[in-house]
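HUMAN:
Could you generate one sequence with tokenized structure?
ASSISTANT:
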Amino acid sequence: MDELRRCMPDVAAVTLRRDLAQLDELGAIRRRHGGAVLPDESLVRSRGPLPGAEASPLASDLASLNAVILPPILGRGSEALRRDIIRRGIPFIAESAPQPGGAYLGPDNFAAGVELGRLAARQVEGKPFSMLVISVAELPNTRERVAGFETGLAQAGGKPAAIHRVNGQGSYRIGLRVAHDAFVADEAINLVFAVNDHAAIAGIEAAQRLERQVAVYSMGGESAGFMAQLADSGPLKAVGALFPEVVGRLGIDMAVLGILGQPLSDTVTPHAIITPRTLGDYFEDGPDGWRLKEEVLDRLSSIRLGFNAKLLRSRRIGFLPHYPAHDWYRSMASAMQARCGDYGATLVVSPPHHGISAEIARLRREIAQSATQLVRPGMVVALNEGQASLFLAEELRSLAANKPERLQGVTVVTNSFDVLNALEDTPTIKVILTGGEYQKADRCLVGPSLGAIFERVRPHVAFIAVDGATPGFGLSSLDERRALAAQRLIDAAEVSIVLADSVALGSNANHRIAGAAQVRSVLTDDGALPEDRQRFRSVGVDVLIAGEVLPEPAFDTGGNYRNQP
């Protein structure tokens, strides 16, 4: 945070924190106490883009893709992205971990872990040992590797005196720190299991810094350079190699089958337990360094396709890795690029948060279109800032242009300059801008004076765009001052309706706007989880679904909105 403030002295600290939270949710960064880091920052800086990466906006547009290969990704936005892929009918390959609606592609992580665990137990030969497990607790595939290794260890009679589990979070730097702490806490640790190459390298370096003798067993084999450490007779004793080059090649083959209209089935890719003795059977050291042998790649990539390659010359296959700097995804992408070259197809590599952002925007547009149906002639409508509110303003402008009688006499009160700009050339709608202090980052007005307008104007309905909504914490925002501004709109209006997409519904942002009891309805999309919808209904809040028939607002004889159920 201190570095960001020095780089951007004109940006408020609360804005920086809000933007960091949003970027973390989208997967572009990883939040840490007091700031944030890029995923494997040094690798990102030193290696450039992945093979096939595009700068074009089309790289994040699912509509331009003919098939998608999607690794496991975290956050509530991931479900929105998967639903969008399925909704569009795009062939969907779920890489490394099963995902709803996708055909699985990847190794049997548990089985590979079991084999590696049995080998470790045999090599321990009954000697006492304490074990350190360096994992990535958030991902299902790495959890399976840990479970498999511990199962195999037990099956072969390996009984550690103690097991220390730490979360390296997929980062070498974090893995190094937590491994170092574990070694300091228990001087008896002499065996390390790592779920991937980065975790193994971190464990090896932490042990070397403390001059500890350890035996390291790792899953992954994400780069041939890492596998080469087996030739050094060092701490690395064996690797459960999962062959990202094979996964990449088979991923393209599966995508091609999907593009050609053939049904996709789950494909379990091969693995091998590689030791110093068997390293030469799979990898070779050449002029350009270590690499997987071509005959091994051909042997392990078992799918053989027969078709006219000309059919694929205009086809685009999307690869959306969450951690693009990792050697696993770099090795996969190189193999994918080569395979696409064989077929004449185009590989498009794009971070998944691009697609998530596009899908969330689509859902918010859908919500805004339905919210427009609730606006009637003569209404005074309050709108706060936010993308959903902007979309609602744009929908009102479109409706006013095509059916001006539907919005005759409508007044919009807003603290958002984006809403003001969207409606400024719409003669049918009167726009009132609240007072307040200008918050540049959000193009809106905030502060105590915002509420002065409501001493003279009484909104019939307030549409409130939120970053989070749960029955317990209530409505919430990523920014404290925007939260207070939204609260004033709710307090002033006769009825309040929350605009919350399915990613926001059921999650909490940093700052509370108001309790759930202060709103009449929540308007969301059909991706909202049934349990999230029911929790709101159980506390007396209606849940409206965009695209469905919405209830007719009630009016008295004077045309004013009545606060009635």
The radius of gyration is 28 Å. Confidence is low (pLDDT under 50) at residues 40-48, 54-60, 554-565. The first strand starts at residue 30 and ends at 32.
